[in-house]
Amino acid sequence: MKDQNESLNECQTKWGECLSRIKDIVSDEQYVTWFAPIVPVSFADGNLVLAVESDMVRAYLEDHFSQILTACIGRCFGKVNLKWRVKVVASRNESESVSVSQPAKLQEPGYDPFAVRRRSFENHLNRQWTFDNFIEGKSNTFARKIAMNVAQKPGAQFYNPLFVFGHSGLGKTHLVNALGMACVKAHPELNVLYLTANDFLNFMQRAVMEQKIPELLSYYQSVDVFIIDDIQEIGGNKTATQDLFFNVFNHLYQSGKQVVITADKAPKDIQGFEQRILSRFKWGLQTELASPDFELKYSILKEKTKEQGVEIPDDVLRFVAERVPDNLRELDGVIASILAQSMFLGAPINIELASRIVSDMVTFREKTLSISDIQEKVCDYYKLSVNEIQTKSRKRDVVQARQIAMYLARKYTKSSLTVIGEQIGNRDHATVLHAVKTVMDLCETDREIRESVSTIEKELK
After folding, report:
1. What domains can be seen in the chain, in order of their start residue?
2. Using CA atoms, how far apart are residues 450 and 274, in angstroms rounded to an integer?
3. pLDDT of residue 4
4. Does position 164 have pLDDT exceeding 90, yes or no?
5. Where are the alpha helices (DSSP H) in 87-192?
6. CA–CA gap between residue 73 and residue 84 (Å, rounded)
7. How far apart are CA 231 and CA 172, in angstroms?
């Protein structure tokens, strides 16, 4: 027993030396996230065994830091050909069990997102959003049916991951919450977790600060159906955040667990992600929530007024459905404004009132038009991806689309030439100025270009 203790003490001392060397090589964030949780278990016959609490940590260390570990271990333990391996244990002390306290609501003080209890897993779903009140129309029929299938058979390879995309306000959050609620009902034994991308980021930051990355990984490992909303918010973040998502995704996917992702763009158009992550977005099934047609908007308005127990003349509902563009949230806003002005100001509910409110909302929308919005509309028109006009390609249609995007960004946003250039292909201000002048000249002399620009402008409005 004494020899064993001395051997373990020596192992721990040498491992401490290893950590000191590793700390000088990797970033502070990488050290805290991946190396600080490692515990040496044994060192005998030229074999070093290291312990971590998560299979994802083990896989990441072996995939990304194998050379660093081999070099530092060999140097500190004095053996060039020393063999090492990482094993997963229940906790840092194998005789102890992992704490399993139940997480509270996301907003509650003292909430611990990393604690897990199987029998009462907090899924963070909005229970008011179900398939029963998700109004179906031509623009969302396919997406709705796919989501219902996933809820009944989570983890089926054909649907995994399920990637739902579409512009803001088209019902993506409602749809994936409905999927989650249906899955909970059909499979009460499964752990379903809904998070926004911002929740994911916040959990990551907290775990790093509190040195709880292993606990966070264990939390994600316990999930059977993982729903992450607005994934584009993670794009462009630190490598460590994308590394965490990559490893969570890989573990769940390889374990046959269901992953559901939403974004405002299709995978091919999302920016700010490493290619290895983008490729995984495309592994399963992609489905788009398209802009709603008149019939769907009218049906939604009828259902909204019915839910609220109010009467709005049919001609007013039809007027709103015709005039309010794609965003379904704007429909809610218009109805709320109509009812508020009727209740508190005594205004009659008629076309005149609806017209005034719709006009105000559309004006506000035009004022907030972004460079990103413009790029998307231009690319839709020319059947190009946003990534294509970001490249240095000199193909005629790509150059034309890029120049028109710069021209419209200059016309409809308050952004400087420098900012426009940075967001559209990382060009300088002189290039943007040249593009604006070129398109202006072509609009005067080239009928085809003039009509193209006019069509895109109507789409923007």
Report:
1. 2-88 (3.30.300.180), 118-288 (3.40.50.300), 294-345 (no CATH), 371-460 (1.10.1750.10)
2. 38
3. 52
4. yes
5. 141-152, 172-186
6. 8
7. 12
Report whether 377 contacts 459 (CB < 8 A): yes
The length of the chain is 461
Confidence of residue 239 (pLDDT cuts 50, 70, 90): confident
Q: Taking the CA of residue 192 as centre, how many other CA atoms within 13 Å lie in the half-sphere pointing to its CB?
A: 26
Beta strands in 95-182 (DSSP E): 162-165
What pLDDT score was predicted for residue 429? 85
User: Which pLDDT score, from 0 to 100, does residue 1 have?
Assistant: 47
Predicted confidence at residue 69, as pLDDT, reads 85
Q: Enter the tokens of residue 315.
A: 């001609």
Longest dimension (CA), the chain: 93
Confidence of residue 182 (pLDDT cuts 50, 70, 90): very high
> Which single residue is written with the structure tokens 């390609």?
393
Phi, psi dihedrals of residue 167, rounded to the nearest 5°: -60, 165
- The yes-or-no verdict on residue 109 having pLDDT over 50 is no
Burial profile 342-381: b = 16 or more Cβ within 10 angstroms, e = fewer: beeeeeebeeebbeebbeebbeebeeebebebbbbbbbee
HEC letters along 325-364: CCCHHHHHHHHHHHHHHHHHHCCCCCHHHHHHHHHHHHHH
Confidence band of 104 (pLDDT split at 50, 70, 90): very low
Sort 143 into a burial class: Cβ within 10 Å, 0-12 / 13-18 / 19+. Answer: buried
Tokens 């996917």, located at residue: 253
Separation of alpha carbons 43 and 194, rounded Å: 42
Examine residue 313 and say whether the peptide bond preceding it is cis (omega within 30 degrees of 0). Answer: no
The 8-class DSSP code of residue 222 comes to T
> What pLDDT does 118 receive?
43
- Structure tokens that stand for 360 in this block: 């105000």
205 alpha carbon, distance to own chain's centre: 16
For residue 327, pLDDT beyond 80: no
Q: Which of 22, 39, 31 is nearest to 76 (CA)?
A: 22
